[in-house]
Specification:
five-stranded parallel beta sheet, four-stranded parallel beta sheet, binds phosphoric acid mono(formamide)ester
Length: 308
């Protein structure tokens, strides 16, 4: 069973093949209408369940469009309207869904839900975000970086802000793709030691630097994310804003990074908080390429899951 649960648990050769296949197939489709199917209809006759326990725009639409382009069908399910975890065990939902669908994508809160679903499903399961990671997003980010700047191996990525689930997947990717990552943010929002330690053991240079201006020196890519993630309590908002304000990505910080540094944000963004509109809409920003590449990379992930 080829689940796509996290970047650190997927073989580096498979990750590379997914990125390369996404790029080749994106180029092959260039200029075609979005609703036009691919030539080879890799998911023809396949049914894909897309389960959302949290809101989504990009993940929901890009998976749905991707399945349709590959000739498959989707059903989009809201966790609230299912028995998942409250009316029955996750394991029983996994066993039942496996009798109806060929592939499951889930966006959920606890990583344990994803892992239990994968353990008991007889079909591949894809992680569409948990509180601990967001691997599809970072695969899209790597594809985006490489389209603009070539191989990411050996490059310097700077994460500015909250060491959250998206940052965790960047750390996973640093270990698997061989790039260096500098985290700059307040100590209380550092990424978990387990993510930093694993990336270092795999040979990536991981640096923690409290001064954002020092951190971005020589950066090839500057990344940030919202100051309040979907799983954070609203009551933490003021405290987090005060902690994270010095790590805003603005024109001054991008100037310190240099003109060659790209800017990424997985979106949705709170403009004027973690990043200014001048940066988001500026010449170094590739945020909408990132969003588009969710489609291409997830199609490659689904192909990989269902191949062999
Ligand atoms: N970046 C991302 O996952 O976006 P959505 O929450 O809109 O799916």
């Amino acid at each position: 069973m080829k689940h796509f649960l996290d970047i650190n648990t997927t073989d580096p050769a498979d990750l590379r093949s997914i990125i390369d296949s996404a790029l080749a197939r994106k180029q092959a489709r260039a200029g075609r209408p979005k609703g036009m199917p691919d030539d080879d209809l890799a998911l023809e006759g396949r049914m894909v369940a897309l389960i959302f326990e949290k809101p989504s725009t990009r993940t929901r639409v890009s998976f749905d469009v991707g399945v349709r382009q590959m000739g498959g069908q989707t059903m989009v399910l809201s966790g609230k309207e299912m028995q998942l975890g409250h009316g029955e065990t996750i394991a029983d939902t996994a066993r039942v869904l496996s009798r109806y669908v060929d592939l499951i994508m889930i966006r959920t809160f606890e990583e344990a839900v994803l892992l239990e679903l994968a353990e008991f499903a007889d079909v591949p399961v894809i992680n569409g975000l948990t509180d601990r990671s967001h691997p599809c997003q970072i695969m899209a980010d790597i594809l985006t970086f490489e389209e603009h700047r070539g191989p990411i191996a050996g490059k310097k990525v700077v994460w500015s802000g909250d060491g959250n689930n998206v940052c965790a997947s960047f750390l996973h990717a640093a270990g698997q793709f061989g790039f260096d990552l500098t985290f700059t943010g307040p100590q209380v929002l550092d990424p978990e030691d387990v993510f930093v330690g694993e990336a270092r053991r795999k040979g990536a240079q991981i640096t923690i630097e409290r001064d954002p201006f020092k951190a971005v020196e020589g950066a090839d890519l500057v990344v940030t994310d919202t100051w309040l993630s979907m799983h954070d309590s609203q009551s933490a908002q003021e405290r987090r804003h005060n902690l994270l304000r010095p790590y805003q990505v603005n024109e001054e910080l991008m100037k310190a990074a240099g003109p060659e540094a790209l800017f990424m944000h997985c979106l949705p963004a709170h403009r004027g908080e973690e990043a200014t509109s001048a940066v988001m809409d500026g010449p170094q920003s590739v945020i909408f390429d990132e969003a588009e590449n969710r489609l291409h990379v997830q199609k490659a992930i689904m192909r990989w899951c269902l191949a062999g």
